[in-house]
Amino acid sequence: MNSENQVYYVQNVGNGWNYQVADGVSRFEVRAGDNLAGDGPTKERSEIASAAKLQTGQTYEISFSVMIEPGAKNTADWMTLVQLQSTFDKGEAGHSPAFALEMVGDKMRVVTRDSAAAISTDADIRYVRHYTDTADVVRGQWYDFKLQIKFDPFGQGHLMVWRNGVELVDFHGALGFNDLVGAYFKEGVYRESSPETFAADFKGLSIKTISDTVIPQPSSSVKLADSVAAAPAAAPVTPVAPITPPAPVTPVHAIVSGTANADTLTSASKTDILHGGAGNDILVAANGAYELDGGAGVDTVSFKGVTSAMIVDLGVTTAQTTALGSMTFINIENLIGGSGADKLSGDDFANVLDGGAGHDFLYGRGGDDILHGGAGNDVLDGGLGRDTGDWSDITTAIVGNEATGVVNTGDGFIDTVSSIEVWKLGSGSDTLVTKSASTVYAGAGADNLSDSGAQANTFYGEAGDDRIDGMGGNDFISGGDGNDRLLGGSGNDILIGGAGVDTMDGGAGKDVFQFMAMSDLPIGKYETINAFESGIDKLDFSAIDADGKAANGDTAFTLVNQFHGVAGEILISHPAGANYYYVQLDNNLDHIADATLIVYGPTLVASDFIL
Question: Are 367 and 348 in contact (CB under 8 A)?
């Protein structure tokens, strides 16, 4: 068997993110619920499997490179990246692979299984750990593996494993199963069901035979099935004289430098070096680049126009292998992806990550990051810090739920989110249910915002007729423009109706109803406050200059029993038998109310006002 011209079968549920191939890199991604039919609900996978089998008694050299993409830490109970899966004899128990490269948390492990039984059962199979990392792998870094392995038909063999040129395993002994038909190769992600998204990239797969083909004979203690005969010895392989490679060519780097201003620099080839200098620069790397150094300022690397999947990690300061070649990123704060399925990761500082089109994965890591997925079924993971999910360019109705981590953008795509604390919605009539202490900017449209728990949220309805329910917690709720309905729920809330004819209800707790300008109280229409609790809640007019004259400073309102033609008066009246009070404001000397507020409640006294 040789890896060239071999048939490989894809094993996944068929989602767009599960398996992608671009520029010689195979990308495998598994998300929660990627359960292949036949595996059941406890297993998730995206793999390819070779149709050809390894010949028993033959030594094979298998080479490949693997990279674990940045993202949430692996919490699966078990996971394999590479397998040599044995075939089953009739009557055998289904068994795990004879060789596997596993992930244990974020550590790699090399294991084998063996059984000398002709028809193996679960009790016969032995599991051996040969090597386990002592530290987590570096995500976003390629690891180069080479295996030399030989199975005999009787459950014995030889295994050697190198990673990045360092020998990890040299084992002779029980290896594999008592099978005449050899194992077959698999790569990808196969795991116990787990909530986090996990992706691994592979490249450079080579499977070839090498010399050392003597087939060991079974010892007298090994009992073969009656129908199994010893395999004949393979013909010796004549070694080929090594070919001397040509001397390497040192590339010539064209250096493009910016100024102290905000520059846009564009690379022409993969060997270019872009130095932004001072200023907030944009480095356009659609043609690749050898090194991108933003210098001082807040600098952005853009891959607009690139159709291949770009995998870039700003937390890595050494060279990274990307779809456009080797690239080094220095002093770069922000990334803009192309139209491929990009994987963009930030560092421990504030980053802006824009996926562009395609099914992207954005990982903020540390710092207060801004993540914008763009068109596509995107995954947004803010990581540490107070991170922002930005859907402000969406015009359709967004429906999001922080508890489930699902955001339906209304334009045919569904995003998956985690560790997002600040939400910027679009101009449609959006619906969002938060669960953590979130800040929400609803944008235009008749939006519906609420919280599913008792967290202290900050809600900005902005334009449109919004409905906002703080539920539990000490919330800050601002309706913005439009005729809004604001509900504080339990907790000590601050409610600001803003422009428009608003209805507010603080609910339980010590609530404050703030009025920031006379325009918050429309002329000729009544703003309404329901269920006001005198002695507990407050009406706050202190932000308004009572006489409207900036020249004499900020003037406070005065409570009166009747208007006197003096600017800055508030008149409280209680219609006989009514369960509400009128609160009228005059700030222009004309004895006539310039704004009227209706407050429902049994009592309203002077101490309920902040003037």
Answer: yes
| Residues 514/496, Cβ–Cβ less than 8 Å | yes
Positive or negative torsion for Cα 296, 300, 301, 302 = negative
Query: Looking at the chain, which residues constitute the CATH 2.60.120.200 domain(s)?
Result: 8-210
Give me 463's structure tokens: 């334009």
User: Dmax over Cα atoms in the chain, in whole Å?
Assistant: 116
pLDDT grade for 369, boundaries at 50, 70 and 90 = very high
Q: How many residues does the chain have?
A: 611
CATH class of domain segment(s) 250-373: mainly beta
**For tokens 């439009």, what's the residue?**
482
pLDDT at 96: 74
- Cα distances from 74 to residues 27, 70, 179, 196, 305, in angstroms, run 17, 11, 34, 7, 32
Alpha carbons 424 and 382: distance in angstroms, whole number: 14
Q: pLDDT for 508-567, tens place per residue?
A: 999 999 999 998 998 888 999 999 999 999 999 999 998 888 888 889 999 999 998 887
Global model pTM greater than 0.70: no
- Name every residue whose Cβ is closer than 8 Å to that of residue 596 and which is 6 or more positions away in sequence: 521, 526, 527, 582, 583, 584, 585
**CATH architecture for residues 8-210:** Sandwich (2.60)
What is the rounded average pLDDT of the residues 15-19?
Answer: 89
How much helix, strand and coil, in percent to the nearest 5, is found in the chain?
0, 40, 60
**What is the per-residue pLDDT across 116-165, written as a single tens digit (0 to 9) for each?**
675 566 566 788 899 999 999 999 999 999 999 988 767 788 999 999 99
Which helix or strand (DSSP H or E) is residue 59 part of? strand 59-68
Flag whether pLDDT at 387 surpasses 90: yes
DSSP 207-263: EEEES--PPPPPPTT----TT--PPPPPPPPPPPPPPPPPPPPPPPPPEEE--SS--
